[in-house]
Write a structure and sequence with these properties.
There is one protein chain. This protein has one domain (about 25-170): dinb family like domain (Four Helix Bundle (Hemerythrin (Met), subunit A), Up-down Bundle). Helices cover about 60% and strands about 5% of the residues. The protein has helices spanning about 15-20, 25-45, 60-85, 95-100, 110-130, 130-135, 150-170; strands spanning about 90, 140, 145. The protein has a 3-stranded mixed β-sheet.
Length: about 170
């Protein structure tokens, strides 16, 4: 399944940029290739830049990586719920509160990357388990409709969005 098959009714317009960044690959290919690309990208960040902020109050590369991990967990959870249950409505999460309470900068980049690989591997296995019908099922997250497959494509595009920002403003 290619992301061009996803209707705008399957996700909040806020996520359109993320879904668009996932264009051209199947969901499973995007998740698998994204894992390799994102791991290599963060592994190559110089040690002296791991806790760098380009402006006051901006996240560091370590905090951004943990934000990717947290967000992937949230969207995989949403996908799991919507694939397994009907008429589900899930609340949103405050990404800034999560980042503030993450302790990312107290962890090593190696430790964060190990967690990233574990979470992404789990996501790949989860999305592999979904039938085509499950991938099209819908629920409500943060007061907006969301399909199982859109949740997966958002994961793929979200990490591309943040690695581009890191490349542009941090490195």
């Amino acid at each position: 399944m290619q992301p061009k098959q996803i209707s705008d009714k399957e996700f909040n317009n806020y996520y359109k940029g993320y879904v668009n960044k996932a264009l051209g690959k199947s969901l499973l290919q995007g998740l698998a290739e994204g894992m390799l690309e994102t791991h290599a990208f963060f592994e190559a960040i110089p040690k002296e830049k791991e806790e760098y902020q380009y402006a006051e109050g901006k996240w560091t590369p370590k905090e951004i990586l943990l934000h990717l991990i947290d967000t992937e967990r949230v969207f995989a959870y949403r996908a799991l719920f919507f694939a397994r249950a009907t008429q589900v409505e899930l609340k949103g999460f405050d990404q800034d509160e999560f980042a503030l309470n993450s302790n990312a900068n107290k962890r090593s980049m190696e430790d964060l990357l190990e967690e990233y690989i574990a979470v992404r591997t789990s996501s790949v296995v989860l999305f592999t388990s979904f039938s085509e019908e499950m991938l099209q099922q819908m629920g409500v997250a943060s007061n907006f409709p969301l399909s199982v497959r859109a949740a997966g494509y958002i994961i793929c595009g979200h990490e591309k969005h943040h690695t581009a920002i890191l490349q542009e403003r941090y490195l």
